[in-house]
Fold this protein.
Amino acid sequence: MSILNYSTKPVEGLNHIAALRGKFFPANGERDMCRFIDDMRDKYEPGYHDNIRVLSALFDLADIDKERQHLKFNELTTDEKERLIKAMNKLKAVVSLFPKNLILPL
């Protein structure tokens, strides 16, 4: 099963909840997303390079053009914001399917 083709009720449920939050608490979501992206781009974080790779993967999953991936969340179009949040919800749902006891090879 490909992550890109993963579309089930959990993803739809997460998107529905996100839409309700946007309707009733619009300022909170914008602020939280701005902080998340800023934190991921913080060059002083020890995992900075991995964070940038993860952020790039999220933008790619959301089909946001490379030349727009440097923008702050509040500079994205409404459509791009929606696609990014839906991509994050898809990833949340997929991560919930990961095996519970991952073992690193020796």
About this structure: The longest helix spans residues 78-95. The two ends are 27 Å apart (CA to CA).
